[in-house]
What we know:
This protein is an alpha+beta fold. It has helices at residues 44-65, 73-79, 90-105, 115-120, 135-142, 173-187, 283-296, 298-306; strands at 10-12, 22-28, 31-37, 86-87, 150-154, 157-160, 193-197, 200-204, 212-217, 229-235, 239-244, 249-252, 255-258, 261-262, 267-268, 273-280, 312-319, 322-327. Helix 3 (90-105) runs parallel beside helix 7.
Amino acid sequence: MRFIFLVLSVFLITACNKSEPVTIGGHSMGTTYHVILADKGVDTKKAVAVKEKVDSLLQTVNQQMSTYIKESEISRFNQLTDTIPFPVSAPFVRVLRLALQIHSESNNLFDVTVGPLVNLWGFGTKGNRTTPPKPKQIRETLKQVGSQFIEIINDSTIRKTNPHIQLDFSAIAKGYGVDAVAELLQKFGYSNFLAEIGGEVITRGSKDGVPWKIGIDRPLPDVVPGSDLEMILELHNAAMATSGDYRNYFTSGDSLYSHEIDPRNGRPVHNNMASVTVLAPSCMLADAMATAIMVMGAKKGLEWVESKPGVEVFIIIHSGKGFKEISSRNFKFPRH
């Protein structure tokens, strides 16, 4: 009963003690979450109340969007082999609407119906594998993929025009969860905080007047998150998400197969992309775009980002035995 979120490439480096802001945390969406409350006057009693509200909120998100919960909205939709209208919650439609938008903007490279392929390659709910599937299996599974077969009827109803289509929000729902936590905290009057779920981050205000500092991992396989940082960013009123090829993969022979699946050919991407970090107004947008750019590659990814106001990207690509950094025009990254 959990999401698998495949990219944990950002490490929270802000520490807390008795004289500093209050930190709460827990487990949700198949990973951990942390919230740092930096407003003055936050005591233990208030922090406990916030944790209870955050836990309840994330439990609701799971009940809506987790494919690991059999009775969740998304699981019941996936089990439906019909094209009749299907009622869902407003947050579900909100996530799906952005997913379809990014699907269109990315020339179909971001696709929330790619779940059957993710499962086929051993990165989903059906268990792991150590060898690639057969070409015929890939061709047959591709027939079950395509966001064009999903239709939003209104803010509470969707339907599939291909009865075999299924949804998988693992590349966007964690970002939504971060945004939802931020909205909850703002609703209760907090204006200086950091919220993070499995490495996806949003910040508001500052920590004692100083921008929040977030580290981006060097994209090395099997390295503990946070132990080898590529850089440290200062984040102010922004969201950040990272996608990469180095946290969830398997090797077969001389080849490495990452969880990032290209919906055009049904295979893991092979384009020298190691890591993509997107800064955006919402974490949901950053989450989806980071995944899409991993598939489309650096050149097209940069062009796309430069056309979207308020969005920046930092890309790390494999270069020989090392890495090369590429970023959008206005991406600012102080060295520490």
